[in-house]
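Task 17 of the worksheet. Students: predict the tertiary structure of the chain below and write it out as structure tokens. Keep your answer in the requested format; marks are given for formatting as well as content.
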Amino acid sequence: MASSNLEHDPLRFVTLDVFTNERFKGNPLAIVELPCGNELGQETKQRIAREFNFSETVFLYPPSLEGEAHDRRCDIFTTTQELPFAGHPTIGTLVYLCREGNTAESTIQSVTLQTKAGLIRARFDHNLKIAEADVPHNVRIHHTPVPAGSIIDTQPSLSRSATRLRQSCPLVSIVKGMTFVLINVLEAGDLTQLAVGGPCIDPKAVQWDDGWASFTGLYFYRIVWEDEAATRIYIQSRMFDMTGEDPATGSAASALAAYLALQRGTAGTVYTFTIEQGIDMGRHSVIRVAVTLDRSGKSVRSVSLSGSAVVVSQGTMCV
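Model answer:
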């Protein structure tokens, strides 16, 4: 029973590990359920996200009314700010909503989420236990790339392999508000020697296009294998931002996949990417992205993000 001096009744929460089917791997996520009539202010949501101290926390609204375009609405917060979209919160929320089983004849359950980036249409396969989401995208390759020297300043170990780095690294947004510097390294050792807790990138080195200033992470990746047609690609990656390293970053994986597909540029082609992340953190994650180009081969028609998740804990919290 709630104490009379509480501002709100206790809120239910659940935590999951996302982009894995094994507990204590993948990327942790907290989901806080908001009951009908219990609207939390931005400041309260931010405090709760800091309390969980995960890379993201989702605030899940009650089921939508009949006739609305979405099934559920959700807000996504890091420990410092709200995000319009993020990959692992989307996949984790979908698995959480669909995990109890499907009473319909079909093993594929459809769900539509409303995020600040727009509607996300998604599916959950009850046999494979995998969620797949159509990622809202507005892919932007910014005009000014980031100099490699600025990257080396954040990761001095790369100075020994500077000759293997390109002189500059593309700055790519998957949607407005989610941007990543894509750093291609050629050797496995270049990834494993990256250090956590180093200096942040000089803000002057990141020059977004006008009106596109946003959260920006550093996404290091290595192409391990691709088929002869270069349409199936296997990648290992690591992502750093001002808070440290992230074990699985669906938005970064989506930005990278969109960028690489556009570089290949075969009209109407579907490119599929399997991206491993979190290995050096002991939180192995597997992210899958499919990118379809339009008939010109110069624009992205669709981005599909998929993965699994497992529930780790659940309970109530007082606010």
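Marker's comment: The radius of gyration is 20 Å. Residues 1-6 have pLDDT under 50 and may be disordered.
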